[in-house]
Amino acid sequence: MKVQPPEAVTPFVRHHPSGDERFAVLDKTLEQYDYHPDSLIQVLHMAQSLFGYLSADVLRYVASSLKIPIAQVYGVVSFYHLFTMLPRGKHQIMICRGTACHVRGAPVILERLEEQLGIKEGETTKDNLFSLYSARCIGACSLAPAIAVDEDVYGKLTPDKIPKLCQKELKKYV
Ligand code: FES
Question: What is the pLDDT of residues 105-133, one digit of tens each?
């Protein structure tokens, strides 16, 4: 029997048919983890940072690359709050729904934010500038109720501070 020399073996190479270069970067991450199914969360993190969100196409690609059932990938994405399947705006507004913020009025703060931005929680403004999300705690409990806009925290909020926050403070992100 004739044995092929190692260099004659075709290496395992994947390419997304779109030719989108972001998939080539994602391929590097998959390679780095040796296409191991246990790397699913790390791969999804990279995919979300590359694409901004996890589209059905990206999830299918990750599932087939890691040889994981697509249902399992959807399960992980819907379990972890930080993953999103919807395109996000340029800036993220995160309202805290932790206990300290909740008892100090977070639900009313959320209502006011929704009114001012014209969107519901989980949505993005029409100009794609802001997305509104909630979190269990943003680590600023002493400032409750608090929200974060990207890395900036706004605390000790009251419902009547929200119009000014949206009409003045948020302008600096535009
Ligand atoms: S509970 Fe709101 S910042 Fe911690």
Answer: 999 999 999 999 999 998 899 999 999 99
95 in ligand 1 pocket by Cβ < 6 Å?
Answer: no
CATH class of 91-173: alpha beta
**Count of residues for the chain?**
174
Sort strands 130-135 and 91-96 into parallel, antiparallel or unpaired: parallel
Q: Is the pTM of this model over 0.70?
A: no
96 CB near ligand 1 (under 6 Å): yes
Angstrom distance (rounded) from CA 128 to CA 89: 4
Q: Where are the domains of the chain?
A: 14-79, 91-173
**Cβ-contact 30, 12 below 8 angstroms:** no
- Evaluate: CB of 138 within 6 angstroms of ligand 1: yes
**Best probe residue, ligand 1, of 94, 95, 137, 149 (max atoms within 8 Å of C-beta):** 137
